Structures are given as structure tokens and as C-alpha cells.
Amino acid sequence: MGWRFDVKRFVAFLTAAFLMGLAGAALAEGVRIGVVNPNKLVERSPQYDQVRRDLEKEFQQRNQNMLDKQKQLKVLEEKKATDSAVMSDVGLNRLEQDIRSHRRHLNLVKEEFREDLNVRRTEEFNKLLRHVSEVVHQVAREENLDVVLSQGIVFASQRVDLTDRVLERLREQFKAASEKK
């Protein structure tokens, strides 16, 4: 039972040491620090809502197509349940093949839909994150901040929390962009 190197603990230790050193340097040199909550910025920004609506609109037709295929499959399955007793073996086999074919096609359509939606969602989310980051940088420069932290913060006073100020800027930019359209 010997000593074991734990990467997670080592990284946590280095992060804590860095933050303590940063805090010490900030106190010694008057470094100005700001904090943002990136999840709050993204989830409460009007741009996030717009991205969500745009994706819904973009995938609405494909979603409807998928729902129509589900209804077709359900009709075939109901036909089998109600008519199988009076159908010939050939007719029943043909219907079962048709059901399997529809089910395979529906599963393929669903999988393609999920993959395409995930790709587009990731693309749009990454664009939004880049935009949020740009706005954080703008606000930090305007407020003469030297460091902006975003994760691993246990506590931050309102004085250093930029989240609401950045969120307000995002709303202003969204409103200005909406008025131009």
C-alpha cells in the first residue's frame, strides 16, 4: 500500500495554489478582478432564446416528417392487430415486412435528425459562447479589470460580479440588432 499519484487532486491543488497566488498578487499590486457566471450569461441572454427558436424553426419540417412516419407505422401496426386473424399468410407476411421496413426507416430518420440537430446546436452554441466572451472582454476593458474569472469560484461579491452587467450588454446588443431587421 504505497503512495499513489492522483491527477485530479494534483490539478485541484495547482488550481488552488494559482488562485491563492493570484489573490495575493491582486492584494499586493492592486490588480482588479472580475467574475462572471458563464452559464447564467448564456441561459438568460436573449440570443440564447433566439438560437433556440431558430433551431426549432429550422428543424420543424423534419420533425413533422418524422411524426408523420410514426403515424404511418402506428396505422400499419393497428391494421396488423385488427386484421391479422382474417388475413392470408402471404398478406400478413407482406404487412409484417412493411412494418419492419417502416420501423427501420423511422429509426434511421430519427437518428439522422438527432445527429443533425446536435451538430447545429453545437455550432450555434459555440457562436454564442464566442459572442458572450467578446462582450465579457468589452466590459472588462471598460471597467479596467486585469483578470476575469469564470469557473471554480466559491464566492464573489456583487462588486466584482460582472454577470449582470454583461447580460445587460447582451440584451442591448440583441435589441439593437432586432431593431435593424
TrEMBL record:
Coiled coil stretches, renumbered: 52-112
Biological-process GO terms, alphabetical: protein stabilization
Gene3D superfamilies, per the entry: Skp domain (3.30.910.20)
UniProt xrefs under Pfam families: OmpH
UniProt cross-references to InterPro entries, sorted A to Z: Chaperone_Skp, Skp_dom_sf
A GO molecular function held by the record: unfolded protein binding
Record keywords, A-Z: Coiled coil, Signal
GO cellular component: cytosol
Signal sequence, renumbered to the chain: 1-28
Membership in a protein family: Belongs to the skp family.
Descriptive protein name: OmpH family outer membrane protein
